[in-house]
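Hi support team,

I submitted a single chain yesterday and got back a structure, but I'm not sure I'm reading the C-alpha cell output correctly. Could someone confirm the output below corresponds to the sequence I sent? I've pasted both exactly as they appear in my results page.

Thanks,
R.
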Amino acid sequence: MRLTRVALLVAATALSPALLLATPASAGALPAPGTPATAATAAPGTPIDEMSEDDLRIAILRILADEDSGRAVVREANEALDGTVGDMRAFLETGFRLARAEDDRVAVFRILADKDSGKAVVREATRALEADTPEALRAFLETGFRLARAEDDRVAVFRILADPTISDALRAAAEAVVGGTPEELRYFLETGQYEVEG
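Hi R., thanks for writing in. Yes, this is the structure output for that exact sequence:
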C-alpha cells in the first residue's frame, strides 16, 4: 500500500496546474480551527462530504507533501489513506486539526525546553499549553512566540543599555533598536551588537 501511496503522491504533484488549483492548495486550504468543515472544497462550492474519492486523496496527499506537516499529521494522513472514503473525510474534517494540535503541542514543549527561552516566552508557552486547545497552540506558534520573544529581546536590549561600560556606538545602536520590530530586536542581539563592536 505504501508503494501505491508514493505513486499517488508523484501523480498528484505531476498533475497539471489547472487540476491542482481546483483542489485545496495546502493544509492551509483546510478549514481553519473553529470553522465549518465545508470550508475545504475540491472545487468552489463542493463540501468535503461531497468530494470524490480522488479529490479526498489529492487533498490528503497535498498535506503529506507539505514540508511543515509534523509526525502526527503524517501518521494520521497515512492511516486515512489506508482506510475508507469515510476515514479520509473524517481526517479532512477533524483529524487533520487534531493531529496538527498534537504536533503543535510537541513544538511548544520544545520551545519550553530550550534553555535560551526567556521569561515571556515561557509564560506564553505555558498559557498555550494550559489552554489545551488546538487554537491556543496554533496561535502561540504563529504569533505568540514571536511577540513573546520580542518582549524578552527588548528586556535584553535594556540590560545592555543599563551597562555603564558599553561604548557610545553600542549605546546608540541599542537605543535605535529598542523600540523596533521583533525582527530588528532579534537581529541586533544575534548579530548587530557584534558588528557595532567589531
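A quick pointer for reading it: Residues 3-44 have pLDDT under 50 and may be disordered. Let us know if anything else looks off.

Best,
Support desk
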